[in-house]
Amino acid sequence: MRVLIATDAWHPQVNGVVRTLTSLAQSALRLGVDVSFLTPDGFPSIPTPTYPDLRLAMPSRGGIERRVEQAAPDAIHVATEGPIGRSVRTYCLRRGLAFTTSYTTRFPEYIRARFAVPVSWTYQVLRRFHEASSVTMVATPSLRSELLSRGFTRLGMWTRGVDTDLFRPDKRLRFDLPRPIFLSAGRVAIEKNLEAFLSLDLPGSKVVVGEGPQEAALRRRFPDTVFLGLRKGPELAACIAAADVFVFPSLTDTFGVVQLEALACGVPVAAFPVMGPKDVIGDAPVGAIDADLRAACLRALDLSRQACRDFALDRSWEHSARQFIGHLKPVAAGSSWAMPAPDTRRAA
Asked: Which pTM was predicted?
């Protein structure tokens, strides 16, 4: 089976969506499924208003058509709701092609964090976007319940995994810092709520791995925090493994793959009791979830690193890929790719 995934999030971006899609393709290939990507590469782009360091693709209709037809996929998946995802969605609707989507980013909450836009308005737009798909894949039961309450339909589970060969306890960086080390990794942006972590009165040291639009401001406000900037691959894994506690202060992530990456490194997680941490960690003795983030950080210090590692070993990317492929098989089985029947409806 050949699968084409349309995504606005792609390298060189470093985030959960990009890491998930990259890991999915690698695992799917081992299962006999060839995944290719239709990304912003090669299209003109403009700076985004909310992320000045990222650019927004401006795809042409002809360019989208050529790339889809060159890929000749058995199934099409739209991973994001940006210009690339929207253009491929429109292409499928024009030709009467079934496709799937995934809901990976809580844009209504992200937008509300920056602008006075009611989340109900944004959810209405997103619901219209996804209702045209055969299945909208979500990562956690909590997210599924929330979207159902907001009128979304045809929701299917697609959980996440972790590369336990890359993220492991025995390959750690040596930090010359006072212990314990509380570390957070991810995009340094307002929606990640890093200020809630950095303002805590904690013993030892605080470390932030990542880059983003809020980095300069947070460096000025919290000069005692160690900011390591962007780290990838083995270097990122070594940084995380060197921590005593991984702090995940986000209130808006739908999953938070980096939590599993920390656990695979044998590092317990401290987080707020919100979607993402509640689904990834739950009641397992590998993290501390508390509305008092400081209390969670201190409690996590006493958790077993071996228990964290064992927990992560049961959550593979292969299992995640099998879920994803399972949702696409009905689409591929009914594919009209060889002779697409034009759809006379207006492509919404």
From this structure: 0.84
